[in-house]
Design goal:
This is Guanylate cyclase domain-containing protein. α1 crosses α2. The chain has a single domain, classed as 2-Layer Sandwich (Alpha-Beta Plaits). The chain is globular and about 45 Å long. Strands 1, 2, 3, 4, 5, 6, 7 and 8 form an 8-stranded mixed beta sheet that branches. It has about 260 residues and is α+β, with helices and mostly antiparallel strands.
């Protein structure tokens, strides 16, 4: 058993509204959850690289060695996960449909005979359980998942705009976890220009890391008509310089977004 703590990229995935389902449906959802996650890890080129998955009932704790590029997690894996969920939604009954909350953090973790522990793991669970993240997924009616990264991951990875990451699609949130611990995170919803369901005053008040535009500027940009080489046909944005063509859904999170 590993005694010393090592650095990992720490991801937690949780299924929305798992507990109210009947036992047979829960079993079907859990089976589908693992199929989706394992297939998405494989498609993103992450599977088989000493990735650890620990079962959490209605979710999974995923520990990825620090040697794996984080862009594969925040970019490729999330995209594959979203596409996989979207494909399955067409074929799945309403009772067994899945939507995910996903959070990504980094830090030290250690293993004993019973499993994994560490403050960074605790923080990642607080991110995925945060009320703002739940509210965003509730408001994003067309979404298949909502994705949150810690301020550390946003500052060190997302804000630099590595392909296929799109920093402009993230907005900051701040909340209190257990014992009044303040936590800052950044939230995005694949397919949405900005995550819906965030309190406007909270969004406007959040500090922004150096080198990024303010949330207000991001919202303003999202409301502006497409210009330059970007064109919109129906619900498809064509010519996105960050991630190529994408389908965009808007649920009226900000005035003017219809």
């Amino acid at each position: 058993m590993q005694a010393e703590a090592l650095h990992y990229w720490i991801m937690v995935l949780d299924v929305e509204s798992f507990s109210p389902r009947k036992n047979p449906v829960q079993r079907a959802v859990r089976r589908a959850m693992y199929e989706v996650v394992e297939e998405s890890l494989s498609r993103a080129g992450i599977a088989g690289q000493d990735v650890v998955m620990e079962d959490r009932g209605d979710g999974i704790l995923i520990l990825v060695p620090s040697t794996i590029p984080p862009v594969l997690l925040a970019g490729d894996f999330i995209r594959e996960l979203h596409d996989n969920l979207r494909e399955r939604a067409v074929l799945t009954s309403t009772a067994a449909a899945m939507r995910f909350r996903v959070a990504l953090h980094q830090g030290l973790a250690s293993r004993d005979e019973h499993g994994w522990s560490g403050d960074a793991i605790n923080t990642t669970f607080r991110l995925v359980d945060a009320k703002p993240l739940r509210d965003v997924l509730t408001a994003a009616h067309h979404a298949h998942l909502v994705f949150s990264v810690s301020s550390d991951v946003y500052r060190d990875v997302v804000q630099h705009g590595y392909r296929p990451l799109d920093p402009a699609a993230y907005l900051p949130v701040r909340f209190e976890a257990k014992h009044g611990q303040p936590i800052e995170a950044w939230v995005t919803v694949p397919g949405y220009s900005a995550p819906p369901g965030l309190p406007p005053l909270e969004v406007a008040a959040r500090p922004v890391p150096t080198g990024t535009s303010s949330p207000a500027a991001q919202a303003s940009t999202a409301q502006a008509p497409a210009t330059g080489t970007i064109s919109i046909t129906g619900n498809t944005v064509q010519g996105d310089v960050v991630a190529g063509d994408k389908t965009v859904y808007v649920d009226g999170a900000y005035p003017g977004l219809r």
